[in-house]
Amino acid sequence: MEMGRSGPPKGKERGIGLFGGTFDPIHLGHLRCAQEVGEAFRLSQVIFILAAAPPHKRDRSIIATQDRWNMVSLAIADNPSFALSDVEIRREGTSYSIETISHYCRTMKEGERLFFIVGADAFLEMETWKDYPQLFTLCDFIVISRPHFDPLQAPVLQSEGFKQKDNQGNLFLHPSGHSLHLLKVTPIGISSSEIRRAAGEGKSLTYLVPKEVENYIMRKGLYRG
Length: 225
What we know:
Layout: E1 14-21, H1 28-40, E2 43-50, H2 65-76, E3 82-85, H3 87-90, H4 97-107, E4 112-119, H5 120-124, H6 132-135, E5 140-144, H7 155-159, E6 163-164, E7 171-173, E8 179-183, H8 192-200, H9 211-220
Parallel strand pairs: 1-2, 1-4, 2-3, 4-5, 5-8
Antiparallel strand pairs: 6-7, 7-8
Helix pairs in contact: 2-9
C-alpha cells in the first residue's frame, strides 16, 4: 500500500473507505454522506463497519446486532460501491477502531489505499480513543465537517504534529506521511435518536430511512417500549 498521498486516489490506485457506526438505525443521512465521500475521493468501495460493542455508548442500550446488521444490509443492497463488514462482530470484546484499521491494513492489496471516515464530533474526541496516536500512522482520514466546525479545536491536530497543507484548512499532513482531509457534505438533519423516538411512538419513518428499513423496523416492532 502506497503511503503519503495527500489527495484522492490517482491512476490505478484503489481507494477503500471505512465508515463505522452503531447504525441504530441506519438512515438516509448516513447513506448520503457515504455516497458523497465516495464520489469526492473516487473510492472504489465504502465499507460500513458495524460496531458490535462501541466503547462510547455503554450508557445506553443498543438493539440486537443482528437487527442492525439486517437493516444496513437492506439499506445498501442496491449500491454496488457499498459493502458491509462483520469484522467487529466476529471480534470478541469492545469494538475499537485501532483494531479494525489494523485488520484492514493487514489485508490491503498492492495499489489499495485506506481512508477512515469519521464525523466532526467524534474527531474532536479522538484523544479518548484507544491507542489514538497510532491511528494516524496507519491510514488517511476523512473528517466529515459541519457548519462552524473548526478543525484547529481538535486536540489531536496539535498533539500529533499535523501540518496544514492548504489555505482553506481542509488538508493536514501527519508526520507519518498520511493525510487528514475535511469534507463538507450535504447537511441532512436526521439523527438515529430521533428515529428511535419516532418509532417508539408509532410514527412514520418515511423519508428518514430507506423504505425497506422502515418496513423492517415496523415488522419487528423495534424501538417499542
